[in-house]
């Protein structure tokens, strides 16, 4: 049975571990249109299968981007990264090894505010620090030390009651009433559309391009790079009923890390208020917000196996002179945050590139 809804009884339905990951970071690269296209072109030319991709908000005209690859692809990835930095004329390349990715998946993330908080709380309780964070609508992933990988997986598995037949809702947060469910007729139409496309499923690399203008962006800089910090941030937001969408954390430097996340625009004042009160305990923290942003996403089952999807996305954005502020990925989605006034031009360019007009 293929349909739009999953298991309504479980907020999170599974946890997974990718054990042998390596990380490559490009620090202090130019924060301008076309940079990500150049980097991803180097990767695509070598057919490197990139997994997590994280770019946080740049500062002073410089940006940092990190991505993970299978451990045995590290040598080729370093060659590609070094060539990208050479062509850009600035930046440095750093690597991280002995890393693993732990993830939780579930459609309940779209309606329950406490999933992220519970995920990070479980990791903190196990003493697991987080290297990177990426999210999609139904998935949260964290890059952790490989020596802690099994502990991390066990912690989130237990934290979401995945070992039980009857699972409890996360203790933090609230359930949002999903009262805007589509009509029976619309549901039937969508199911028919899915079935009609099954015959050519192998050809569906990108099935949807989406532009969301309804969100705002919160960025927290100079956070202590310690277990529990992310749990505290998303815990206070969850308790106030703030539905967080994208979460992006890049690799920490000098004992500090930065986190950015998006929230519905009407929730921004509440999120800023509770986040400001929490982060007051850390004197070096800088809290900023962008009330108006555009979130552009491409979705499709072929993103994991077709290494050129990212390159084509960033080529389209570069050709439209659109700079990328934030990147977050999963196996079936690449999401970016761009300037709101460029949203329509970016949407048109990306749709043309992937034949989704």
Give me the oligomer status: single chain
Biggest sheet, in brief?
10 strands, antiparallel
Low-confidence stretches: 198-203
Count of distinct strands:
14
Structural class: alpha+beta
Our measurement of the CA-to-CA distance between the termini, rounded to an integer number of angstroms, reads 29 Å
Task: Give the name of the CATH superfamily of the domain at 14-159.
Answer: VC0802-like
Cα Rg: 20 Å
In DSSP terms, counting alpha (H) and pi (I) runs of 4 or more, how many helices?
A: 9
CATH domain class of the domain at 14-159: Alpha Beta
Classify the fold: give the CATH topology of the domain at 14-159.
VC0802-like
Helix-strand pattern = EHEEHEHEEHHEEHEEHEEHEEH
Q: What's the shape?
A: globular
Mean of residue pLDDT values: 87
Beta content comes to 25-35%
Write up this protein.
- With 357 residues, this protein is of the alpha+beta class.
- It has a domain at 14-159: VC0802-like (2-Layer Sandwich).
- Helix content is 31%, strand content 29%.
- The protein has nine helices and 14 strands.
- The protein has helices at residues 35-45, 74-88, 115-125, 149-159, 184-198, 229-239, 268-279, 309-319, 343-354, and strands at 14-30, 53-55, 62-70, 92-105, 132-136, 139-145, 208-212, 215-224, 247-249, 256-264, 286-290, 294-299, 326-330, 333-338.
- A ten-stranded antiparallel β-sheet has the order 5-6-4-1-3-2-13-14-12-7.
């Amino acid at each position: 049975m293929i349909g739009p809804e999953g298991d309504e009884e479980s907020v999170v339905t599974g946890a997974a571990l990718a054990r042998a990951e390596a990380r490559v970071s490009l620090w202090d690269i130019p924060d301008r249109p076309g940079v990500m296209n150049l980097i991803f072109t180097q990767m695509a030319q070598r057919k490197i299968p990139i997994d997590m991709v994280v770019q946080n908000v740049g500062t002073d005209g410089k940006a940092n981007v990190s991505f993970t690859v299978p451990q045995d692809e590290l040598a080729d990835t370093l060659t590609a990264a070094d060539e990208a930095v050479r062509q850009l004329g600035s930046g440095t390349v750093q690597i991280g090894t002995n890393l693993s990715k732990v993830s939780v998946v579930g459609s309940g993330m779209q309606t329950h505010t406490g999933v992220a908080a519970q995920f990070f709380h479980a990791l903190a309780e196990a003493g697991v620090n987080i290297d990177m964070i990426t999210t999609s609508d139904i998935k949260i992933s964290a890059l952790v030390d490989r020596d802690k990988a099994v502990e991390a997986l066990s912690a989130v598995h237990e934290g979401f009651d995945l070992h039980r037949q009857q699972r409890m809702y996360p203790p933090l947060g609230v359930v949002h009433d999903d009262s805007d469910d589509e009509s029976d007729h619309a549901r039937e139409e969508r199911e028919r559309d899915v079935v009609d496309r099954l015959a050519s499923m192998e050809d569906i690399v990108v099935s949807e391009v989406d532009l969301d203008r309804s969100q705002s962006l919160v960025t927290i800089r100079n956070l202590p790079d310690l277990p529990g910090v992310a749990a505290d941030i998303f815990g206070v937001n969850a308790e106030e009923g703030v539905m967080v969408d994208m979460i992006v954390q890049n690799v920490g430097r000098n004992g500090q890390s930065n986190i950015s996340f998006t929230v519905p625009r009407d929730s921004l004042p509440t999120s800023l208020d509770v986040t400001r009160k929490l982060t007051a305990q850390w004197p070096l923290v800088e809290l900023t917000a962008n009330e108006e942003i555009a979130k552009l996403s491409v979705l499709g089952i072929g993103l994991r196996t077709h290494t050129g999807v990212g390159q084509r996305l960033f080529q389209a954005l570069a050709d439209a002179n659109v700079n990328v502020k934030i990147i977050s990925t999963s196996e079936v989605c690449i999401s970016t945050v761009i300037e709101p006034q460029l949203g329509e031009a970016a949407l048109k360019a990306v749709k043309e590139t992937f034949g989704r007009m």
